[in-house]
Amino acid sequence: MPVTSTSGPGLSLKSEAIGLAVMMELPIVIVDVQRGGPSTGLPTKSEQSDLYQALFGRNGEAPVIVMAATSSSDCFYSAYEASKLSLEHMTPVILLTDGSLANGSEVFKIPSVAEMPDINPPIVKANDPDYKPYNRDPDKLSRPWALPGTEGLRHRIGGLEKENGSGNVSHDPINHETMTFIREDKVQRVANYIPELEVLGEEEGDLLVVSWGGTYGVMLTAIQALREEGIKISLAHFKHIMPLPKNTGEVFSKFKERLVCENNMGQFANYLRMKFPEYHYDQYNKIQGLPFMVKELKEKFTDFLNK
After folding, report:
1. What sign for the dihedral angle of Cα 175, 274, 200, 263?
2. CB 89, CB 64: distance < 8 Å
3. Contact 254, 204 (CB under 8 A)
4. How far apart are CA 50 and CA 176, in angstroms?
5. What angle separates helix 216-228 from helix 294-305, to the nearest 10 degrees?
């Protein structure tokens, strides 16, 4: 399975190849280390401004799994999980990190491979008489994978639309619509194979702070400090972004206010507005190429609660 890493400009250049992998339904993991942009921007600084690009930055309807690592050590575990999801669901995965994580350091004990979850890709055995390139697993909707050179399983593959099942080139309008919905549904069904969203603090209350990706450490520290001062505040931090955890809406429904904090102009907040428009989202954004600091977060959260 191919794995590649890049930053935002490289992700832009690779968008056509990612769309090809979506059409062919092949596994690939793309690691995007986000930095200040656009263009060359702030190449040595950190930002969270590639989320839109990861979610939507391809032509046509080209859904992929999107994850975001939460710490320098979590980059290992997130990369492993991204590989597992990509291989088992036969779809590309974009793993977002950022400059702060890439240049950070953390004590890390390398785990035994035997301790890691098994990865079970849908590889087809040679000369399978029932093989069709785009037959579907009934639960995951993943297609079977005939590794190149597997005896008796020669087939065509490429960027043209596939006929459902056979994988032959098809320009049939109804088939194209069917395949478009299948590719989307396949990604959404990944929600059945990822952990549910956890809440730090009370599971209901006045204020839920929402964050994602590499801001986890500073968010956790600020929230814990305020809770030690007796302030009732909770944190929901997202690692899985496309699809979102199945219980996301349930978690949001239990709080009066939701404050989304991110190092961009509000990309995750707007994404949540798309997915759960029934809730109101306030924002706290910092776009200076610098990470959030615990002091400023504590002040912001306190002011928000006292408004």
Report:
1. positive
2. no
3. yes
4. 29
5. 50
Residue 74 — left, alpha, or beta (φ > 0 → left; ψ -120 to 50 → alpha)? alpha
Q: Is 259 exposed, middle or buried (0-12, 13-18, 19+ CB in 10 A)?
A: buried
Query: Thinking of the domain 199-305, which architecture would CATH place it in?
Result: 3-Layer(aba) Sandwich (3.40)
Cite the DSSP H helix spans in the chain: 8-13, 15-24, 51-56, 74-89, 99-102, 173-188, 216-228, 248-252, 267-275, 294-305
pTM: 0.95
Q: What's 58-100 look like in SS3?
A: CCCCCCCEEEECCCCCHHHHHHHHHHHHHHHHCCCEEEEEEHH
3-class DSSP assignment, residue 13: helix
* pLDDT tens per residue across span 239-280: 999 999 999 999 999 999 999 999 999 999 999 999 999 999
What is d(CA 146, CA 112) in angstroms, rounded to the nearest whole number?
29
Structure tokens at 133: 């390139």
80: which residues sit within 8 A by CB, 6+ positions away? 116, 117
CATH 3.40.50.2300 given to domain 1-105+126-194: no
Q: What percent of the chain has pLDDT over 90?
A: 93
For residue 4, what are the β-bridge partners? Answer: 30
Q: What's the pLDDT at 224?
A: 97
87 Cβ contact list (under 8 Å, min separation 6) = 1, 27, 119, 120, 121
For tokens 């590719």, name the residue.
183
* Domain boundary assignment for the chain: 1-105+126-194, 199-305
CA distances from 287 to 238, 241, 268 (A): 19, 21, 14
Q: Contact at 8 Å (CB) between 79 and 31?
A: yes
Contacts of 56 (CB under 8 A, 6+ apart): none
